[in-house]
Write a structure and sequence with these properties.
single chain; about 270 residues; Dihydrofolate Reductase, subunit A; ten-stranded mixed beta sheet; 10 strands; globular; binds NADP nicotinamide-adenine-dinucleotide phosphate
């Protein structure tokens, strides 16, 4: 297990990597700073093409909330800071409408330096009210993906996609967002939305941030509709473990380019 130390110096470097102005390999770093570059570097890099990373904050027993729906906050302080760093490194953060309705998240970067990503909600039936916090105007793009012709305020972009049996194709969602210039997507939940992307093989990485508490019952972080009956058929991603302090992150590479992204790159422009 690697212990991550996100010093101001290493975070500045990662923001430069995100802008394409630096690499993750050069420089003098402590072991903790090097671990931070290894964890966040693949999310900051833009030289490997479009990416979609999902992250779930869950308890030791795999829950994201209690049976009454209390979900704030499963993650400890370092897990929350980690989530905000992930947002700061992404072009867009994307959630399902059930999370938007249940948690009313702002999806902004508040616990680290860095700009806010675009905010995207998958809302096929147009259920999200116009005064939802994530639609608040703050200079950042806000996008609603809908299957119905529900009008939105002029400062909110609507992407209209066709649903089949009530489902939108995650590949069409990703393509539409890439078409809007959003290449690096953070799929922040909930479990239904992440499962759709995972099943469509669109996730480059899946991060499980485990906080040391036992909830006992309540919604699971992730349930795949097409589960395996034999362990031999289970998905076994290439996984790295990082201690953040209060929480532990399992960082799973799900595609070939994810493994490539964990290799340091030499000769990045303008370092
Ligand atoms: N701990 C964490 O990291 C974390 C993060 C986020 C959320 N959460 C928790 O997760 C819970 C909500 O998650 P959830 O899994 O129930 O729901 P969700 O993923 O937030 O939202 C699912 C809904 O989004 C729409 N949707 C998403 N992908 C779609 C697709 N491909 N095609 C069509 N519609 C799609 C559907 O809306 P319709 O229902 O309108 O059809 C679907 O029911 C809350 O309790 C929240 O607190 C935890």
């Amino acid at each position: 297990m690697f212990t991550v130390d996100v010093t101001a110096k290493v975070w500045r470097r990662l923001l430069e990597v995100r802008r394409g102005r630096a690499c993750t390999c050069c420089g003098q770093w402590s072991a903790g700073e090097r671990a931070a570059l290894d964890l966040y570097g693949p999310l900051a890099r833009r030289d490997l093409g479009p990416s979609a990373v999902a992250q779930i904050g869950q308890s030791l027993d795999g829950r994201v909330a209690t049976v009454t729906g209390d979900a704030r906050d499963v993650s400890g302080p370092d897990g929350l800071a980690h989530l905000h760093r992930m947002r700061a490194l992404a072009d867009a953060v994307l959630i399902g409408v059930r999370t938007a309705l249940h948690d009313s998240p702002r999806l902004t970067v508040r616990l680290c330096d860095g700009g806010n990503p675009a905010r995207v909600v998958i809302d096929p039936q147009g259920r999200l009210p116009d005064d939802a916090p994530l639609l608040a105007e703050d200079g950042v793009r806000r996008i609603v993906i809908q299957a119905v012709d529900r009008p939105r305020r002029s400062d909110v972009t609507v992407i209209r996609l066709r649903s089949r049996d009530g489902q939108l194709d995650p590949g069409e969602i990703a393509s539409a967002l890439h078409g809007e210039g959003l290449q690096s997507l953070l799929v922040e939940g909930g479990g239904i939305t992440i499962a759709r992307f995972l099943e469509a093989r669109l996730l480059t990485r899946l991060q499980l941030a485990i906080a040391p508490l036992l909830i006992g019952d309540g919604p699971q972080g992730l349930t795949l509709p097409a589960s395996q009956t034999r362990l031999a058929d289970a998905i076994r991603p290439v996984t790295r473990a990082f201690s953040l302090g209060t929480d532990v992150v399992f960082d799973c590479g799900l595609r070939d380019e994810a493994s490539l992204a964990t290799q340091p790159v030499h000769g990045a422009p303008g370092r």
